[in-house]
Amino acid sequence: MLTLKSINLKKEKTETIVIPVCEDKNIHTEKTIISLVEKARKIEQFKGRKNDELILYHPEDVGAPCVIFLGIGKAADADTEVWRVFASKAVKMGIKKELTSVSAVVPSAKKTGMEKNRLIESLSEGALLGNHRFDQYKKKKKLKPLKKINLLTAWNVTAELEKQTARTARICDGAIMAREWVSIPPNDKRPARFAKLIVKQAKKVNLKITVLKEKELKQKKCGAILAVAVGSQSKPRMIVLSYEPKNAKKTVALIGKGVTFDSGGINLKPTGSLDTMKMDMAGAAAVAATMITLARIKSDVKTVGVIPIVENMPSGHASRPGDIIKTYSGKTVEIGNTDAEGRLILADAMAYTIDLFKPDMMIDLATLTGACVAALGEKIAGVFSSDKKISDAIVTSGERTFERCWPLPLPEDYQKLLKSEFADIKNLSSSRWGGAITAALFLSEFVGDTPWAHIDIAGPAYIKKGDAYCGVGGTGFGVRLLCDLLPNL
Ligand code: BES
Ligand code: MN
Ligand code: ZN
Asked: Does ligand 1 come within 6 angstroms of the Cβ of 321?
């Protein structure tokens, strides 16, 4: 639980109060805070530099038994991300000390050069996301999340700010939902099970839900989804979620790649590339969690989410390199590599979505290529779109949320790399290079005239080492991005 409160240090009964301190400037207005900070600065080792820490026990005139000062560095460098990291650090220190509550002091918006609502939003995000850990599978939970987090402000909390913070909390819940799904081991989220997990949450918020099972996928001729799934014991699903607020003018479609485990299929991945492939449904998790969140925050954009879910496995039934399949669109595809499965299931899902909803715009999220990770590293997603407006809006939302996105091209002359001798197109490029681009170009064959953007999240969807406000596992990348983006499209 996150609460905004006006500062009253004498009465503040939380177990610990955390105060941010800049090295070059006072950033507070409240007198009791200023005098506490002055006291802290008298101690030689503490200068307010980045990562400086100082703990005072039982300071005078403070209700809480402990005050922690955290260095922020230079005030001018403190952007939204610095405030997310600060709030998360405050929460994590509380967790480590096995506390149940922490209060973080909000600096002056004016003195930090931030808008009040952006400052509160960043602090709330850092605190809420930093308070999450994935420990469903541990019998003994070593560290417990805080029960209560307060943000202490020097001003009166308005109803508007409270409303905004409730929205931020719902969006963080969504990101955490996605994180958990991605972190669940692959033996506990085979397609039918993962679909059920999504449907359970979608029902709670009254989304319109359709689940296509193997029989329906056959009827609808989703040959690509079926071809990827056929090697697995687990049957595929496709979930269609729709959120339809009244008076909405346009429809946005979101598509998420849902490969619950990507072994590579007959083109089996080598050791070292397999152990994290439970994360190959991160696009699906982001889209489903976003849809659920949109309903909870009462978004006014009509949005549909289409989520193909399969497991990519080798077996005697599996698709082979050389196989030719017929996709939903009618186009035939020669399978050049069974490990290029994401583009296949997306091809069916996207063409189906266009037929069913005729959306004004479509965005897909997918852990699609290792090549995108090679290009942009593990923290930045690639954006591909022939529509500059959509691509710019995505990059801007990426900056605002720090779910960073960077545009990459869709060069027409690369399309010929996907030529097949025997079918309409091949799922594998004839060149070793530019794999993120050729994957995106493959997808572009299935979107017709619909304005469309593809976000390759193979890098940022998952982390092997904990980060400032995200633990090991799924990152929930995409949920905060999309929630920020949708109203601006
Ligand atoms: N799921 C992978 C992409 C991936 C790689 C995600 C690393 C996260 C981290 C995708 O299905 C895949 O295997 N792509 C191949 C494509 C190739 C066979 C053309 C790749 O990137 O190597
Ligand atoms: Mn693959
Ligand atoms: Zn994959």
From this structure: no
